[in-house]
């Protein structure tokens, strides 16, 4: 059975990270759903470098569903838009309470997870002033897996992050096969 993955996006979310997460997890066999947090159910998001991306559903529609993983891309101020979404916060809190996976990359671990109390010591984020200070004892690693929470640094680590998410969902053997196919 396919694992269900939610990837929330907003205006100014990082497109490399968004695409790496979605593309890689589809290769693993996941059902990936992209949800916009824009007000009024608007699905078109202008990403951080100007690429326009069309979400599958508005975040309010995602709120009533079950997810095996919720994976947040970074980008600024995209991560702030994700943080400010009450529906997304409720989804993330539900993931944490039920012991299900959630993940964030780049600015999102600091801006969303740390600010909402959803990440502990030793996670990682984009190594920029103003972000690392929000993280409790941040790690220097490219990707950090801590039980059901996975964090990563940014666009340059996005493929490694996505493969790590796939490994958590589908196992080490499948992750090696997918990474080999992608020359990662």
Description:
This protein has 184 residues and is α/β, with parallel strands linked by helices. Helices cover 36% and strands 20% of the residues. It is built from seven helices and nine strands; from the N terminus they run βαββββαβααβαββαα. It has a seven-stranded mixed sheet with strand order 5-2-1-6-7-9-8, with helices on both faces. A two-stranded antiparallel sheet has the order 3-4. The chain is globular. The two termini are 25 Å apart. The model has no long low-confidence stretch (mean pLDDT 97).
Mean pLDDT: 97
Cα-atom Rg, whole angstroms?
15 Å
N-to-C SSE series? EHEEEEHEHHEHEEHH
Unreliable stretches (pLDDT < 50, length at least 5) are: none
**Helix content, binned percent:** 25-40%
Strand order of the largest sheet: 5-2-1-6-7-9-8
Proportion of beta-strand residues: 15-25%
Q: What oligomeric state do the depicted chains represent? A: single chain
Globally, the shape reads globular
Q: N- to C-terminal separation?
A: 25 Å
- Let me know the largest β-sheet: 7 strands, mixed
Structural class: alpha/beta
What is the count of DSSP helices, taking H or I runs of 4+ residues? Answer: 7
**DSSP, total strands:** 9
